[in-house]
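Section 4.2 – Deliverable D4.2 (structural model, holo form)

The reporting period included a commitment to supply a predicted holo structure for the target in complex with guanosine-5'-triphosphate. Inputs used:
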Amino acid sequence: MFDGLKDKLESFASDVEDDADIEAAEGEDATEPADVGVTAGAGEAESVSVDAGGDAGEPAAGPDDEADEGRGLTERAKLLATGKTVIDEDDLAAHLDELEFALLGSDVELSVAQEILEGVEANLVGQTRRRLSSTGNLVRDAVRESVYDVIDVGQFDFEERIAATEKPVVIIFTGVNGVGKTTTIAKLAHYLGERGVSSVLANGDTFRAGANEQLEEHADNLDKKVISHEQGSDPAAVIYDAVEYAEANDVDVVLGDTAGRLHTSDGLMDQLEKIDRVIDPDMTLFVDEAVAGQDAVNRAREFDDAAAIDGTVLTKADADQQGGAAISIAHVTGKPILFLGTGQDYDDIEPFDPERIVDALLGGD
Ligand SMILES: Nc1nc2c(ncn2[C@@H]2O[C@H](COP(=O)(O)OP(=O)(O)OP(=O)(O)O)[C@@H](O)[C@H]2O)c(=O)[nH]1
Ligand SMILES: [Mg+2]
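Output (structure tokens):
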């Protein structure tokens, strides 16, 4: 999961670290140690000095060294992170450019990539409010904190929210065709059941032939009740029936499926608005594929406009190298990612945990 992005973030951190080693060695000969500037709050005075002099595309030899010598201490020490750490502003800028390029190449939304870069820079300058355990490495920690900031948006505890909401809790799933809405509903019915929360499935996909049979098959496998009407009928009426069923039978949660629709299809988006208006669900979850990258981010906006979303489920994370949607979608929509779909089995769903994601991307120990 997200291996491509992980590699890029790792190589940013280690490129900067590698250069830091060179600079640290050079620094030993220097008459004046770089000992002024902003101190980091964490108190881990790791002696890392950062300089990007050896980067591809730039001449690595003589002229650079001369430039370094000519550079005033104040300039070199502008981005000072610990008492012993100098980060050359120009060199950092070059690395940040590379990082931006790498993030965009991983399909991270432009505004989110920029936010991450600003965060990395600010974290390196110092005085960061740390919420994550340290990896013992300044650069890596700066990236981790910054990525954490953009993905930790509006997180809430799904189970607590359900427990605190008047029953039955009605959850509607929206999204384009084939992204995994129906599979996610089946997975969540299973997930909730394992936690002692009962559910009924409502097939609001009255559009696609075979949709009833598909949901019924899942319901059979999971021993759940499914409410459906014939193809072509009003999806809001199906979900309404399921709510009545849940009320009459003390069922905790109604999981309402909807037909896949293109966000560009006005008629079907209007229908979604109607479901939202008539049913007034407790939660609307937007479902999309992690592999869809920026497309998923754009679609999230459109679906949010039609029927305000409370969160996102990103499916097929198991097949996603890029991680762009996972990094961007919460920041762009202002609503959290609640679950990741990680395969085709009923167990293949996991709550989205921002801290675990940054640890997976940039080593947590
Ligand atoms: N690898 C992987 N496949 C998934 C995941 N979630 C769903 N799928 C697969 O994606 C395909 C489509 O899933 P559906 O649940 O039918 O998608 P849908 O959004 O309901 O599709 P429509 O109702 O046609 O709009 C199926 O083959 C699922 O097994 C996931 O997390 N990982
Ligand atoms: Mg479906």
